[in-house]
Design goal:
152 residues, alpha+beta, 24% helix, globular
Length: 152
Amino acid sequence: MARAGLPAVTPGYLATAFPEELWGAAERAVLALRHHFASARFADETTYGILLVPDPGKLDTRRPMAAAVRADQLGAPVNDVFDDRLPAGVLGVRKGVPWTAVATVTGVYGPSLGSHNQIEGRIGGGVHSGGRGHQGTDDPSALGSPGPAGWP
């Protein structure tokens, strides 16, 4: 993280970078996700939590990371499983904020919502959550972080 120019995520950093009211909002967002997907297949095996996403201008995690990056997470260097045929994807957080807190699936398993075609048919051709997020998105799970346009 230091090589990328990101501050280390320590208890002190979290206490100063994320205001106390954000943690209450984060807890509500995690509970809302759990409730929203409660009827999905494998919902009882899904763990939700807060994920800190780094500034994509400093460390863009939409592509595979070096095996050493995962050593702290997994206890040993492990290569990312990645399909090079996939596009980079959409930035879910804005650039210029060191870390953004996002409510999401944090465990090994996620809820099974059906096939791509079933999901697209249910949503009507696109995902729109109706919430307030970052970078022009309507993603309520992007809880924000301090900065000029911080959340809430």
